[in-house]
């Protein structure tokens, strides 16, 4: 397993930006879906999403692009994430620049499904992501 891949929960990993070689490593560890949460051209040296998608398809791994700018995750992005994750035939690896946005969108999906905000925050913290400023939004999503 790549040392960049952080386990959030059984079957769900997050990572900073990955390369085509890391797609192969992900496939070797059983990843069945890669979710790219990074907008194209966010940084000049980032690999194009098409390169990651091509590597994923070559390894028989499904690929979804759900680009997120900043910390504003829209309802449409959240719904696209939920559909992609629900349709995965096995473990998921989501990535962005640092892994934070990929952790955030999972947190929002868990909250929207009625998850406990404190448990969601603990899951993220255990993987090295501090989402505590999002607690009010998580609570609001869980209580809607």
Describe the model.
By secondary structure, the chain is of the alpha/beta class. It has helices at residues 20-28, 49-58, 75-86, 100-112, 117-126, 135-142; strands at residues 6-9, 12-15, 33-36, 62-65, 92-95. The chain has a five-stranded mixed sheet, sandwiched between helices. Strand 3, helix 2 (49-58) and strand 4 (62-65) form a beta-alpha-beta unit. Helix 4 (100-112) packs parallel to helix 6. The longest helix has 13 residues, at 100-112.
Give the SSE order as H and E letters.
Answer: EEHEHEHEHHH
Ranges where pLDDT stays below 50 over 5 or more residues in a row are none
Numbering strands along the chain, what is their spatial order in the largest sheet? 1-2-5-3-4
Decide which structural class fits the backbone. alpha/beta
Number of strands: 5
Mean pLDDT metric: 95
Largest sheet: 5 strands, mixed
First-to-last CA distance: 38 Å
Shape: globular
Q: What attributes does this structure have?
A:
single chain; 144 residues; alpha/beta; 6 helices
